[in-house]
Amino acid sequence: MAENSTAWSDVQTEAVIGSLLRLGVLLAASVVLLGGSVYLIRHGTSMPEYHAFQGEPTDLRTISGIVHDALRFEGRGIIQLGLLFLIGTPVARVVFSIIAFALERDKLYVVVTLIVLAVLIFSLAGGHF
Amino acid sequence: MVSKSECMNTIEFTALIFLGSMLAGFLGALTGLGGGVILTPLLTLAFGVDLRYAIGATLVSVIATSSGAAAAYVREGLSNIRIGMFLEIATTLGAVGGASLALHLPTGAIGVIFGIVLLGSAYASRRGGRWQSAEAGPPDRLATLLKMNSCFPTLEGPKCYQVQGVPGGFSLMFLAGIISGLLGIGSGAMKVIAMDQVMRIPFKVSTTTSNFMIGVTAAASAGIYLQRGYIDPGLAMPVMLGVLAGSFLGARLLPRATSKELRLVFGITVALLGLEMMYHGLTGRI
After folding, report:
1. What is the ipTM of this complex?
2. Which of A25, B63, B105, B157 is the most exposed, fewest CB within 10 Å of its CB?
3. Which residues 6+ apart lie within 8 Å of A99 measured at CB?
4. Which residues contact A24 (CB under 8 A, 6 or more apart)?
5. Chain centroid offset of residue B17 CA
6. Between residues 25 and 84 of chain B, which touch chain A (CB distance below 8 Å)?
7. Nearest-CA distance from A115 to chain B in Å?
8. Any alpha helices (H) in chain B, and if so which ranges?
9. What's the pLDDT at A51?
10. Is residue A1 in some structural domain?
11. Structural domain of residue A90, as residue ranges?
12. What SS3 class is residue B150?
């Protein structure tokens, strides 16, 4: 452990990260469960089709489309929103780490963490080279 | 293989997928290998799900279990957040590359690569937690510069370690990221090897830091998979919830389970799934 006695320490960072991860997973699972219930109640007796790949419709591929579908209380849209929360959990962890390293005045790791965040944002933006 | 889902409605299909995913999560937690490695073969070989949908759903469940487990480890002060964050540069870049590669490779080729990785995992699981941890060496300049050397709590008080081989570990992490992005798995075993064997980080710190890293690595490829329509909510829902429930149960049982025999059975299962994935990939059935 770093034994410097600054106001913010690694131990505090670890405690917040632990809570953040738990909260994110819990929130995501609850939303997915809600969406799943809506989906199964409405479409439970139809036939699933997964052995041929068609790709998801465009509204389930983008953040704005997912939010739009979820607000219309569509089961698949709500599930996808929960999955977005799930994907967002590690991203939130990285964002928080930047703040924590800044509070610890660890410039090197602020830069390291910013690089990781940049890669994540690049991916979430579609990953076009 | 003829899809069994042809004669099932969505509720029955969802229930079966949930139970299968729960079993995968349960075994994954008990053996420490994670459920992802058997989930995709289960979905494609037993349920006839297209490989791309299977990879998308598995990837999502990997984020869930990694974040859930990491929450516990981080609090115990076992994982090293600086080592994790620095190596995440390599794994996230690799994951983006791997996911982009997956968009262009034929599914048969991905099936074959998946099979090879499964065989490798089966071999690694044979050795399990009994990897001979390397002796600590003198301080390494790069590791010192990157503030990687640290201590972790043990029953006999804090134990300190000196990190070695940063470039080698970083390279191996990049490869682990590519595999994770390409196949939608956590590739935790490879991450542990990079830290434990190459960087000489204590095994306990390696496994917990690896778990901590898996979520961020998987999130880096999830964005790409989502935008390309690989993540289907109807399939990802029972997979994610099932794996979460299974791994939660597995973690509860962990102290009481005799994992040696279980590891062997799991290893053999993984190897057989690997052979079957390769066969299906080569014969163009995936």
Report:
1. 0.88
2. B157
3. none
4. A85, A86, A88, A89, A92, A93, B67
5. 19
6. 47-53, 60, 63-64, 66-68, 70-72, 74-75, 77, 79, 81-82
7. 7
8. 10-31, 36-41, 51-75, 81-104, 107-127, 141-145, 166-183, 188-193, 203-227, 233-253, 259-282
9. 84
10. no
11. 10-44+58-124
12. strand
